[in-house]
Give the backbone structure.
Amino acid sequence: MQRICILSLWVCSCLMIGFGVPSARAEIHELRISMGFGMHYLPLYIVEHERLIEKHAAAAGLGEVKVNWSVIDGGNVINDAMLAGALDVASIGVPGFLNLWDKARGNSRIEIVGLSAVGAGSLYLNTRNPKVKNLADFTESDRIAVPGIKTSFAAVVLQMAAAQAFGIENYAKLDPLTVSLPHPEALAAMLSGKTEIDSHFTSPPFSFIELDHPEIHRVINTADLFGNLTIILAYTTQAFYTANPILAKAIIDAIDEADTFIARDKRAAAEIYRDLAKVKPPEEELLRVLNDQDLRYSTVPNGAMKYADFMSRAGTLRGRPQSWRDLFVPLIHGLPGS
């Protein structure tokens, strides 16, 4: 009997693959999720440490769910992992999400949808070059580290800043200066001053650590240019969401609880970040970051349409969504997003 059951399961699996039926339901008790480097991902660090997805999944009647976490940085790398089927849920900068959303629309196998916002705040463009006071001062000899060329959050927001400074037709003016490098490695390069990297478009705590160095100064703060926007969001495939709406809600509820945790006890949140992060600043440094007025944690998407508007005008987005709700699951449509 056991052999017959195994054979039947194998035949069903082959049929599912052959006819393109989504297999996300099979993942309902083993979830693969990614996060990246930096304090904008803090709610996900809390979710992992406190096992909040497991908690909310169990409360929803799903039983035991095993959650496997990966740390992946750079929009193109994250999206490639999702397309390869290596992830069920990914966290990414909003522009990287929009790129894949645009390319995957209409393809039932890879179509994606946002689950919730994760972190909002600002990025700093820092430099070691004393001659650089604004974007117009960068020359061909400068090199700006970003997590991923053209598709990472930092890369696209650099384009937004360039468009604001030089006109939309020159939005890619600084792209030739960018170098793909994860934030921890870029931080090390900036502090050492011994590589070609003399500038870094980065998030906290890396941005704060760099500015404590006497030879590094800030060129721009994205909050000054664009206001307080969601930087990181969590997304999944439409097929996974359709097959696992209860687990999807458990993930959103887990992030929401993590936001409450951070607001209630920043010191405990800082300790958890230090436990899990690759770069471990002193606790007081993390508290300084957490008290920054630009840093906010909420599941409410804020400013998604600002990114979409820019990317549409620049021609990097083929189809502009009509509303932020076009990008996210119905579970959060009642929130005051934008």
